[in-house]
Amino acid sequence: MEKMRIAKELSPAILRVAISIVFLYFGFVQIYDPSSWTGYIPNFLTSLYISASNLVILNGTMEIILGTFLILGIYTRFSALILSIHLFLITFSLGSSPTAFRDFGLSFATLSIFLNGKDQYCLDNKF
Amino acid sequence: MKIKKLLVSLGIILFLLIVIYSIRIIPKGFSEYNSTNSPNSSIIESSNSTQQTDENSVQNDNQVQENSNSKISAEELSKHNIEFDCWVSYKGKVYDVTSFLPKHKGGKEKILPYCGTQEEFKKAFEGQHETSKVSTLMKVGTFMGDFEVVGSV
Question: What is the pTM of this model?
Answer without folding.
Answer: 0.58
